[in-house]
Task: inverse folding
C-alpha cells in the first residue's frame, strides 16, 4: 500500500489548451493543487482567497480559481489551488468525486465508483437553520459560530449540517453570489429555447460552465435562463460560445440595464 501519482491535464476551459502534469492522489486535500506558473501560463484566473489547512495544522489564505481537468479522456470543471512555484501537484477529493473515482492504494490506481443519489431528509434543526440563513449571513471572522449562538447550536454543528445538506443535494451550493461589476468584472443574463426532450442534457452542459452561477427553467418560448458572472469580461462571450458549441443551440444575451433587489424566502415548516 502507498501513495501514487497519475497524469492529469489542466486547462482554462473545456476546449483547452491543456497542460499535462503528474499529480499525487491526495484524498486529504480538498482541492486540486497546481503550481501557479502552470495555471498562469494557461490564463486561469485567481478568483478567491480561501483558508486552507496544511498537514502540520497551519492555516493560511490561498488563491483558488476555476479550471478544467482531463483524466482518461473525460473532462470536468474543478476548483484549483494555486500552489507555490515548485510545489507538487495534488489531485484532491473535490476532483475525484467529480470524476466518480476513488484511489486503490494496493494497486496504486484510480478505480470507478458509483455516485450517491441519496434521498434528501431534513430534520427539524436543519429546517430551523435554513429558515434563519435566508434572512442573511454574518460578515465576521466566525460567522458559523454567530449563527449557532442565535439558534442554540455549536459552530461545529452548523458547519456539519450545511456540509451534509450540500453533500446530499438538499442544497445545490452554499456560498456568496459576488457582485461581479463592482469587482471590476461583468455579469449577464442569457436564455435558450431548448426542446423539452433535451432539457436535462442541455442543462448539464450549461451548468458545467465555470462562469454560470445559476440556471433555471421558465414557462416561455425561451425556457432555460442562466446567469454568467465573472471578474473577466471576456468570460461572457467565451461561455456563450461554449454553450452554443456544445449544445448546438444559440443563446440570447441580455445584459443588465437596471438592477432591482427582490427578496425571495422559502419558509420551511418546523413543527
Result:
Amino acid at each position: 500500500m502507498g501513495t501514487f501519482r497519475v497524469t492529469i491535464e489542466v486547462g482554462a476551459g473545456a476546449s483547452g489548451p491543456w497542460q499535462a502534469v503528474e499529480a499525487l492522489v491526495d484524498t486529504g486535500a480538498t482541492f486540486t493543487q497546481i503550481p501557479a506558473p502552470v495555471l498562469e501560463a494557461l490564463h486561469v484566473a485567481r478568483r478567491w482567497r480561501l483558508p486552507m489547512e496544511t498537514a502540520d495544522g497551519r492555516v493560511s489564505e490561498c488563491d483558488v480559481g476555476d479550471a478544467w481537468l482531463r483524466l482518461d479522456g473525460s473532462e470536468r470543471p474543478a476548483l484549483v489551488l494555486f500552489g507555490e512555484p515548485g510545489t507538487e501537484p495534488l489531485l484532491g477529493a473535490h476532483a475525484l468525486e467529480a470524476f466518480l473515482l476513488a484511489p486503490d492504494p494496493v494497486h496504486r490506481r484510480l478505480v470507478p465508483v458509483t455516485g450517491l443519489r441519496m434521498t434528501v431528509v431534513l430534520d427539524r434543526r436543519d429546517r430551523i437553520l435554513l429558515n434563519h440563513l435566508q434572512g442573511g449571513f454574518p460578515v465576521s471572522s466566525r460567522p458559523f459560530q454567530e449563527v449557532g449562538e442565535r439558534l442554540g447550536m455549536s459552530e461545529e454543528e452548523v458547519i456539519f449540517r450545511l456540509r451534509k445538506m450540500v453533500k446530499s443535494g438538499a442544497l445545490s451550493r452554499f456560498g456568496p453570489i459576488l457582485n461581479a461589476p463592482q469587482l471590476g468584472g461583468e455579469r449577464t443574463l442569457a436564455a435558450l429555447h431548448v426542446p423539452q426532450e433535451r432539457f436535462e442534457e442541455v442543462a448539464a452542459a450549461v451548468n458545467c460552465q465555470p462562469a454560470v452561477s445559476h440556471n433555471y427553467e421558465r414557462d416561455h418560448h425561451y425556457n432555460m435562463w442562466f446567469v454568467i458572472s465573472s471578474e473577466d469580461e471576456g468570460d461572457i462571450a467565451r461561455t456563450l460560445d461554449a454553450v452554443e458549441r456544445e449544445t448546438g443551440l444559440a443563446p440570447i444575451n441580455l445584459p443588465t440595464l437596471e438592477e432591482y433587489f427582490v427578496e425571495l424566502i422559502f419558509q420551511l415548516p418546523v413543527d
